[in-house]
Amino acid sequence: MSAERLRLMAVHAHPDDESSKGAATTAMYAAQGVDVLVVTCTGGERGDVLNTKYGEVAGGVEGMRAVRREEMAAAAAALGIRQHWLGFVDSGLPEGDPLPPLPEGCFALVPLEEASAPLVELMREFRPHVVTTYDPTGGYPHPDHVMCHRVAFEAFAAAGDPDRYVGRGEPWAPLKLYYNHSFSLARFRTLHDAIVAAHGESPFGDWIDSRGAMEIPERPVTTRIPCSEFFAARDDALRAHATQIDPDGFFFAVPRDVELEVWRTEEYELAESRVPTTLPEDDLFAGVRGTELAR
Ligand SMILES: [Zn+2]
Predict the structure, then answer these.
(1) Contact call for residues 286 and 174 (beta carbons, < 8 A)
(2) Element (H, E) at 108
(3) How far apart are the CA of 244 and the centre of ligand 1, in A?
(4) How far is the CA of 44 from the centre of ligand 1 (A)?
(5) 38, 25 Cβ separation under 8 angstroms
(6) Which of 2, 12, 149, 259 is the most exposed place for a label (fewest CB within 10 A)?
(7) Where does Zn(2+) bind (predicted)?
């Protein structure tokens, strides 16, 4: 029996992001005995009700925060992971031309060091070997997703440095930092083509066109996690976010048999590593597992 206890921290912007980006990966590692902690930067309290079948949430921002806390707890149970709120306030997705200013006090407006301090403290306490988050674009242009990247990157860089964030716990340097790439155009194009081949039409044509029009550069995938056994847990977690996820909507538009045939992995980009590893990888803990670092 080894004393190895691997730890994975997944840093996300809003409740529901953990269920749509890398969810099956976290469920799989948790089932294997890895200690998995999802960190949610904001309460998601400025999210609209996106599921048209849900009805209304009373009580404004406060009411939405309460509902989303309950949804998050159910999603965490479905994935078998632990979850921690950083406590920042959702910035909302600004819409219009010109874009309106962000609301005062929201996550995206907090100065970087102030926003990163609670995550540094949590990293020093939880001591993750591996951290996942979004790439510098946020994956899509929501100000909280961009801020989530900045904060996770800053905490990854600084948590091991005794001269930084003094008074926020004993230094701990996580070993690897990954960006989630489950929303890649390559994945949706492959699914789209397979759905068209199987069913004649696919719901993803417009999404692919609009995503293509955003000109978000495709990032390199270094690491593919074979986690299809946990797609059902991912789906349960998605459904737990009932205000956000329509069970007949976008996230469930891929026939699950088609998905299992053509895309059985979740994708990541290794952004930073303090251990030697060989690319491509199929394990976020490659280079860590089985070494003296894995404790
Ligand atoms: Zn989000």
Answers:
(1) no
(2) none
(3) 10
(4) 8
(5) no
(6) 2
(7) 14, 17, 145
Confidence of residue 2 (pLDDT cuts 50, 70, 90): low
Ligand 1 centroid from CA 199, angstroms: 31
Residue 292: CB atoms within 10 Å: 6
- pLDDT per residue over 244-264, tens digit each? 999 988 889 889 999 999 999
Go through 86-121 and write b for each residue having 16 or more CB atoms within 10 A of its CB, e for each that does not: bebbbbbeeeeeeeeebeeebbbbbeeeebbbbbbb
pLDDT tens track for 40-97: 999 998 888 888 888 888 888 889 999 999 999 999 999 999 999 999 999 999 988 8
Distance between Cα 223 and ligand 1 center (Å):
22
Cα-to-centroid distance, 16 and ligand 1 (Å): 7
**Topology of the domain covering 7-184+220-273:** Rossmann fold (3.40.50)
Between 168 and 203, whose confidence is greater?
168
**How many angstroms is it from 12 CA to the middle of ligand 1?**
7
Residues with CB under 5 A from ligand 1 (ion): 13-14, 17
Question: What residues have CB less than 8 Å from 58, skipping those under 6 apart?
Answer: none
Residue positions forming the annotated binding site for Zn(2+): 14, 17, 145
pLDDT of residue 55: 87
Q: Determine the distance separating the centroid of ligand 1 and the alpha carbon of 26, expressed in angstroms.
A: 17
List pLDDT tens digits, range 4-44: 799 999 999 999 999 999 999 999 999 999 999 999 999 99
